[in-house]
Hints:
Helices cover 39% and strands 20% of the residues. It has 519 residues and is an alpha/beta fold. The protein folds into 3 domains: 5-261, Alpha-Beta Barrel (TIM Barrel), CATH 3.20.20.70; 296-387, no CATH class; 396-518, Alpha-isopropylmalate synthase LeuA, regulatory domain (Double Stranded RNA Binding Domain). It has an 8-stranded parallel beta barrel, surrounded by 8 helices. Helix 12 (300-308) links the parallel strand 9 (296-297) and strand 10. The chain is elongated. The mean pLDDT is 91.
Amino acid sequence: MKKILLYDTTLRDGSQSEGISLSLNDKLRIAKRLDQFGIDYIEGGWPGSNPKDLKFFQEVKKIGIRHAEIAAFGSTRRAHSKVQDDQNVKALLEAKTKVVTVFGKSWDFHVTAVFKTSLKENLQMIYDTVSYIESKKRIVIYDAEHFFDGFKTNPDYAIKTLQQAYRAGASNITLCDTNGGSLPHEIRHAILRVKRSIKCPLGIHCHNDSELGVANSIQAVGEGCGLVQGTMNGYGERCGNANLVSIIPVLQLKMGKNCVPKGKLKELAQLSHFVAEVCNMPLEINQPFTGRSAFAHKGGVHINAMIKNARTYEHIEPRAVGNHRRFLISELGGKTNIMLKAKELQMDLAKESPETRRILSEIQKLENEGYQFEAAEASFELLVQKLLGKTEKFFEVKRIVVKSEDIGLDNPISTAEVKIASQGKDHHVVADGDGPVNALDLALRKALKKTYPIIEETRLTDYKVRVVNSEAGTAAKVRVFIEFQDKNKTWTTVGVHENIIEASWQALVEAIEYKLMKG
């Protein structure tokens, strides 16, 4: 079976995504993980554009890349200049990579409007650059920028640009849907024409401006393209690039194409989350294959079917891509969902037991008041334990006072006073914080740490507020989610109230109770 080559451009195209700024160390860490996963080509950046990218090519040689080829990226020579004198071309060679990716213009409109040169000169620029770099014993991948747009307006000229790159010695010609506006049938039509015109191995590079980056890439592979360019999690300029996280399992699991080494596909979710973390970007929960909700089931009808056969509502086995199945807790799930979730928590509940009915009734009541348990599983577990009478009372809250002073000035001050009783002793503490919730968190843990030193292992890692009934304006109920973490796990709790401080306190107390319950 012929292998489909994977070309990752997260470190260049992906870093152009709004909100992403990668340090040199970030780029090296991502490159290492992409290599371990089995990516064939890793585009490190444009060495002629900035010192950080040039430094990357120097440092990446030291981190032990074993499988992938590192590619330097840059443009054809400038118009009406000698290729050997072009600073961009010099920088590409100075990167000392075995593979060099050169992009050139295929759209006549761009040649005249952006390069402001003749169509003939553009053809010469392509030939000179590719042939010169190839003569330096480099493997040249030619990116035909805006190829599909150029093909729509002037197909003969667009094809001529590819023929120039092929004659000059390009090892692969990658067709680019740079504006992301093409449709799958247009991709197919263009590739069929290209295959009649040149015999060079082809690649595909799509953007996602029409939400078709993955579909167009898959279509191109079906038409014979043997190299696919894209980014992890679809990061990239504007609406992003074709998402390799979706392309890889589609090709490997659904089309029987060989993409990554055997066993590596099970690391896909881990890789996807790792790249999101390094890029400091939230991973979309509904991202196909690797998102938290990709195999999450909430509706009671769905869950009943899933118990009988997982194929009823899952197109692949979650473990194939390193993800896992989840049953969500909500008023939509019914008794079956409660029973399954309890089983996950090592609690034995029968579907028709009074306890299960009581738990479902309480969840329906609370969700009607604005609670949500699908994203706050720690609160759900505490609720079940309390309704079953299995909780231990670790502490009793006797007094809480929160003050925020100097609001509107440069340095507002928040102070929390907390008085609790635990194991027969009263603890009365005061703490200042960066806002009332931070002050409450610090004060509560300060009051508890002598009795429960394990509290010091925890830290608050996320805090979210959502308005439940926006029509009530500033008197609306708010839903607060608080995420805590210790050295072993992460957990989330929820609180709801018209007073944001009270809602936050509810979630905060449950987060601490959960830690004490779990130890």
